[in-house]
Structure formats: structure tokens, C-alpha cells
Amino acid sequence: MTTVRTVRSFCRICTSVCGILVDVDGDDVLKVRGDRDHPLSQGYTCPKGRGLPRMHHHPDRIERPMMKVDGAVAPSTWDAVLGDLGTRVRDIIDRYGPESVGVFFGSGIGMDAAGYRMAQALYAAIGTPAKFSPLTIDGTAKSLVADLVGGAVALSGRPDDGNAAFMLYVGSNPVVSHGHTVAMPNPTGHLREVREHAEIWVIDPRHTETARLAGHHIAARPGMDFAVLAYLVREILRDGADRDFIARHTQDCDVLAAAVEPYTLARAAEVADVPEEQLVRLLEGVRRAGRVAIGTGTGVTMSASANVTVWLTWALMAITGSMNRPGGFWFHPGFGYRLEDTELPVSPAEGSFGPGPRSRPETQSFLGEWPCAVLPDEIDAGNIRAVLNLGGHMVTAFPDTERLIPALKKLEVFATIEIIENETTALSTHVLPTKDQLERADVSLWDFLSPRINAQHTPAIVAPVGDRRSTWWVISEMGRHMGYDIDPAGPDIGDDERLARISSSGRRPYEQVMADGWAEVEREFPAPWVDRHIERVGGWRLAPRILVDQLAALADTAPLVMVPRRQKRQLNSQFGYLGEPPLILVHPDDAAAAGVLDAQPLVVRSATGQLTGVAKADPAIRRGAVSVPHGHQGANVNRLTDKDDIDLVTGMAHYSGIPVTIHPAEPAPEPRG
């Protein structure tokens, strides 16, 4: 007889939330495989999803709450850890005010629906302005453009690639990343389907996995993608624009035309360093299709030209009549939020900004968040004395590691929610172990990132190991020990009851979602609610002054620059145990010029620090670009970033286009004796 059982669930490693089948024997997780009956992923899983059993049974998993005693983190009890944490944070707030506490909403808690909602409640109760999240690490440009061009940051746009005749990916490699802020389960299969009816182009300094599928590739110089888009906008405005759409649904078209006028074919080819013939062919494809669908990724959003590049993609789609129209760009109404039932507030034309931290008066807050890059300065100035790290590996996530770590060591309190020990937990004063994704019931939280209007539910698959608790419970108790009543329902309300409350406004009853594991409704497209909102805005704002000024100020990059990328077996700081090495991709000519040998240790240096990885001489990457994967602890890319090198509009740290040099690693010294 066998005791193995199979549980249907969905993966919460990333926002693609693929359907999975989990084989368990008692509390042993044996295997994860794809669920062929899942409506989105249809049996697909990536190596990370299949690696969930190794995550659950990781030798360094945290099973007990821990507290720093005599300089070392040691196991303790929940009463002791929460009591000490609450007392110390309360004392800091009483002495220095709520602004002395920083709160980081990490990616870990972002995939835990009940935990995230409780984190929001704790942050609101403390009342600190010092909120940080991955927004200023990899994604501010898209939110900024939605705010400035669309008049509402709630406009979560994505390509209508299922109906597209022309699909353009800029700085995005969804075959590996599964999309950036737009989920793409089973990306290879999906793009093959798109290729049946659409011409697909990729702009990327590397001939990526997505570019190989697409068949059309432009290897623009890193950070110079905007020049290609400015050229397209210029030429389409001259011949090929949807004049009726522009007249009825946009504003400031003449200002946009003046802003892109310098980007002639010759100028765009020069700035992007690509052949003119490629740009001509790209323009011909856009004109043939009429409407266009465009997706961008971290190759864009982590660069100094991020805001301008994303803006020009929206401008191109607007002047071709592609916004909120089939074959162009559609806007997700949410399964739970139901935006069509809400009159979205119109954001000011100058953007949703506020005051920044005292230590960095040149910065500002964006959407109520401070730039992650300012944290070391705020700590060094004595303004922040406690940090609540809610589910993030800050040492590998925040910019400028060399200045971040000494700052974190100065904190009176550094509390971290985590499931596996790492460099960040070693620096923490309090470590709070929560259930991993196989140990908790959950619902899909970021429904507006899904390619459909849907919701999912999973039961808990195994019992929590050791003394792990639900994230919502841990945060609720943190608040209680600080003197805040953030959980009126009380600790006796379990996971599913809380998830039911979170889902109460959804399009289907929670009980139905829980029983079926899946619920979906059809989208209305074009969406009348989007057109109604844009009418109140006065039309898509084609030329926000902030972005026009940034376009005029953009400069060329250095001869050799770093660009980021994801790897198939690595996601942020997770899954190092899957053995994906930190391969640093360089063009063979650049490698030869630096005396770097293929498959040998390679040092990458910037003005702030250096890291060592493994060289891969790859003709698929253009000259002048050095591709460094992010998320590795040993080869931490944030040793190359600079807390002072940020976009002053959004606070986004620059992770792409950073000037670097490459060198052969020095051989290890011979042992003596």
C-alpha cells in the first residue's frame, strides 16, 4: 500500500502562478509537476517550481523564532522574540517618532495574500513615511507612465498579444522571466501561438531566448532603446497614425511631435548603434500592422532611460489607436478590485509625488514610497533606527551592498520575516519564521497581473515544520506587542476565514473559488471603464513635461556597461541550491580585449565595488554589454550599484547601463608549507 497523495495547488514563486500537482508522503514533499488541467499553464512548470520540494526541505530552513544574543542569532520562543521586538520598537517610536521605523514590503510577503494585508495594517498603524518595496528596485517606470500618461496608476496595461498582428518586446525576455508585471505562464508555448498570427520583434542587446523564437531582433546599445522608439513615433506621426483616435482620445500630440523630431533615421541608428536598414524594416512592420502591442521588461525599467522608454511605448500605441483596442494594449480590471465599478481618481498632470527623506532632500516619495537607495543614508543620519523587513533578502535586493551592510549593523532593531537562513537573517536582531507556500492556504493576490480575469485558491499541502506560524499571525502579534490593535478579528480566525474576508469583494464567492480552485470571468474589450476614465483625464497625455525634459537630457552610455538578466534556475535570491552559476556574458571580442578566458573566473568592477563570476564568451550579446545575473549571494550584483545613482523623479536605482570594467580573476595563492 502507498501513502503518497497528490494535491492540486498553484505555484507562488512568481506572478505567473502556474498550476502544479504536489506529491506528498505524510509531511515529506516528494515531487512537483505541472497540472495539465490548469487553464493557464496547461502542464507547464519551470525548474524553480519543480524545485519547491528542495525549498521546503532545505537544510538551512528556519524552524524556530530567533533573536540576536551576544552578537549571534540563536533560537528562542515566540513569546521571548515578539516581546523583546515589540518593547524595543515601541521604545524607539516613543523616543524618536514613527518616522524612525522603516518598513520593507519584500517579494516574499507579496505572494502571501493574508500576510500582505496584515502588513498593510501594521504599516498604517505605525504611521511611518519610511515605506520601501521592490517598486524602486525594478519597476517604477511603468507605474510612473500609467500615472502621468493615463492619469491613474491603477491602469495595469498588458499587450493583447492573442489578437495582435505586431508584437514588440523591448528589454524583455519572457521565455526566462515569465514577463515583467504581466504574467506569462508557459511562455515558450504561448509565444509560438502568437507567432502564428503576429510579427514579433525583440529589442535587446542580447539575442535572447525570446529573440530566437521571435525571428526579428535589434541589438540596440544598452539604455538606448528609447532612440528606436522615438524614431518610430516620429515617422508614424508623419505617416501611419490613427488620426481619428488621436483627435478623440489624446492630448498634446503636437508637443510629442516636437519632442521626437530630432530622432531621424540617421540619428536613431547612431544613438542605438544599429543598422539603419533594421529600423526601416521595423517601421514597415508597424505600418503594415496598424495597431501594435508592446511589452517591456527589467532591461528597460532598470536603466537611466526607463521612464522615457516606457513613455514612448505608450505614445506609439496611442498614436496607432492601440490603447484599449484589440490587438494593442488592454487594461486589467482586476478580479477582486473590479475597477469598472469604481470612478478612478484622476492623478495630477505633474505626478503623484510627495516629500522624500530628510537625509536626501534631492529625492522625493513616489506613490507613498521612499527609494530603497536612501536607506543607508537615513540610518547613518540617525533618522531610521529600526527596520521591519517583511519577507525580503535585503542584502541582495537593495542597491550599494558595500554601504548597506554597515548601515544595517547600526540599527537598534532589524527584524526579518524569512523561511531560509541567509546573509540578511545573519544581520538581523530578530528572525521570524513563517509558513512557506506549501504550508499555507492561499488565494492569488495580484490578480491584475494575470493574462485573464481570474482567481485561484490552494489548500495547505503539508503541516508547518517546527514552530513556523502564518505570516498574518506573526505580523498581528508584532503589532500587538508594539501596542497596536491591527487585527480586530483576533488570532482565532484561521487562514481560510481570513482569505474569505480578503476575497469578499471578488467576482465569485470565496466558497466557489475554494471548492473549484479556479474562477474566471470574460473580459469586456474594449473596456468602457477605461474610455470613461480617459475622457475625464481629457485624453491620453502624450507629452508629460517631466518625460519630455528627460528625453532632452538623455546622454550616451559608456563604452562597456552592465545589463541585468534573470536565469532559469534563479529568482531574485531564491533557488541558489538549484546550481545555476553566475555566468557573466561578454562578447568574445570584449573578452579577448580584457584577457578574459571563456569558463574562467571573471571580475566585474564598477565605481562602487566588484563581484566575481564565471565568464561566458557569447556572440549572442552585442559588444559593449556585460550581462550580469542578479540574485546571487556570492556574486551579488548590488556590489556594483550605487545608492547615489538613481532616477531623481522616481527614486529608482540604476541597475542597467552602469559603466564597468572586466578582468581575469587573480589566481588563489598557493598554500604554504
Describe the structure.
This protein is an alpha/beta fold. Helix content is 34%, strand content 19%. The chain has 26 helices and 30 strands. The chain has a 7-stranded mixed beta sheet.
How is this fold's topology laid out?
Blueprint: E1 4-10, E2 19-25, E3 28-34, H1 47-50, H2 52-56, E4 66-69, E5 72-75, H3 78-96, E6 101-105, H4 107-110, H5 113-126, E7 131-132, H6 135-150, E8 157-159, E9 166-170, H7 174-177, H8 187-195, E10 199-203, H9 209-214, E11 216-218, H10 225-238, H11 243-249, E12 250-251, H12 253-260, H13 265-272, H14 276-289, E13 293-296, H15 298-301, H16 306-319, E14 329-331, E15 353-355, E16 364-366, H17 375-380, E17 386-390, H18 394-397, H19 401-410, E18 413-418, H20 423-427, E19 430-433, E20 442-443, E21 453-458, H21 471-482, H22 495-502, H23 510-516, E22 518-521, H24 528-537, E23 540-541, H25 545-553, E24 561-565, E25 583-586, H26 588-594, E26 601-605, E27 610-617, E28 625-629, E29 658-659, E30 661-664
Parallel strand pairs: 6-7, 6-17, 9-10, 9-13, 10-11, 12-23, 17-18, 18-19, 24-28, 25-27
Antiparallel strand pairs: 1-2, 2-3, 4-5, 4-19, 8-14, 15-16, 20-21, 21-22, 24-29, 25-28, 26-27, 26-30
Helix pairs in contact: 3-21, 5-21, 6-16, 10-13, 10-14, 10-16
